[in-house]
């Protein structure tokens, strides 16, 4: 396994405190013998964008759904913000989730609501103390951050695939999350739009100081956004390193992602 470059600076001890997500020995089986996760271990540091690669069915999406409590693992430990997710009650879990943004593949917009209503609904659900003017201000700021303020009165059916992704991201950003989980953010998009979304992910990291896990099959997205990459194979981590390190891996299977 390729490991991240060793930090020999005195700040190494401080870096340990910067871990914001820690996964230990994560296992998940569906049914009797569909063993999706078989002992996954990794950490994500504050401010880091970690890309997760792997073939379909390797456990990528299951892993991030476990992180936010959408799926309960059979075994393991998930520490987020120094809390074990598996020990949280419903209210504590909802409080933690309010600090985490989740961008689904589809964007997950409500088709019966306009763009304004989609974003406002999210705010009303999580920030009940805001008045109408404050909600409108937050909606406009979120849309401006993804370059789509002019789409505020459009319905989802009027949006292109790239616009839906951006609106979905604006709805995620409106709660000002500290962590964002991106599930295939560029799937189904053309090359130019995919790059625009990848650049937006990078911009969000720098302007909002977020931490992210990015699941993707798009190697251009991985190259542009990743501080570090882990590669899942059959429910286990096969390799870990920077894009440049993994591109030169001696493991032919790992290298195949980069060809």
Mean pLDDT: 89
Q: Which regions contain 5 or more consecutive residues with pLDDT less than 50?
A: 1-16
Straight-line N-to-C gap: 19 Å
Q: Please, how many helices?
A: 10
The amount of beta strand, in percent, is 15-25%
CATH topology (fold) name of the largest domain: Rossmann fold
Query: What characterizes the major β-sheet?
Result: 6 strands, mixed
Strand order of the largest sheet: 6-7-8-3-9-10
* Helix fraction bin: 25-40%
Q: CATH homologous superfamily name of the largest domain? A: P-loop containing nucleotide triphosphate hydrolases
Quantity of strands, as a count: 10
Sketch the topology as an H/E string, one letter per element: HEEEHEEHEHHHEHEHEEHH
Shape: globular
Tell me the number of structural domains.
2
GO molecular function, one term: ATP binding
Protein name: ABC transporter ATP-binding protein
Keywords: ATP-binding, Nucleotide-binding, Transport
InterPro entries: AAA+_ATPase (IPR003593), ABC_transporter-like_ATP-bd (IPR003439), ABC_transporter-like_CS (IPR017871), P-loop_NTPase (IPR027417)
Secondary-structure map with pairings?
Blueprint: H1 12-17, E1 19-30, E2 34-45, E3 49-54, H2 60-67, E4 75-80, E5 83-84, H3 90-97, E6 100-103, H4 115-126, H5 132-145, H6 161-173, E7 179-183, H7 191-208, E8 211-215, H8 219-225, E9 228-233, E10 236-241, H9 243-247, H10 252-255
Parallel strand pairs: 3-8, 3-9, 6-7, 7-8
Antiparallel strand pairs: 1-2, 1-4, 4-5, 9-10
Helix pairs in contact: 4-5, 5-6, 7-8
Describe the structure.
The structure is a single chain. The protein is of the alpha/beta class. The chain has 2 domains: 19-99 and 177-259, P-loop containing nucleotide triphosphate hydrolases (Rossmann fold), CATH 3.40.50.300; 110-176, no CATH class. Helix content is 37%, strand content 25%. The chain has helices at 12-17, 60-67, 90-97, 115-126, 132-145, 161-173, 191-208, 219-225, 243-247, 252-255, and strands spanning 19-30, 34-45, 49-54, 75-80, 83-84, 100-103, 179-183, 211-215, 228-233, 236-241. Strands 6-7-8-3-9-10 form a 6-stranded mixed beta sheet, sandwiched between helices. Helix 7 (191-208) links the parallel strand 7 and strand 8. Helix 4 crosses helix 5, helix 5 (132-145) crosses helix 6 and helix 7 (191-208) runs parallel beside helix 8. The radius of gyration is 19 Å and the shape is globular. The two termini are 19 Å apart. Mean pLDDT is 89; it is low at 1-16. Residues 21-259 form the ABC transporter domain. GO terms for molecular function: ATP binding; ATP hydrolysis activity. It comes from Flavobacterium hydrophilum. InterPro entries: AAA+_ATPase, ABC_transporter-like_ATP-bd, ABC_transporter-like_CS, P-loop_NTPase. Keywords: ATP-binding, Nucleotide-binding, Transport.
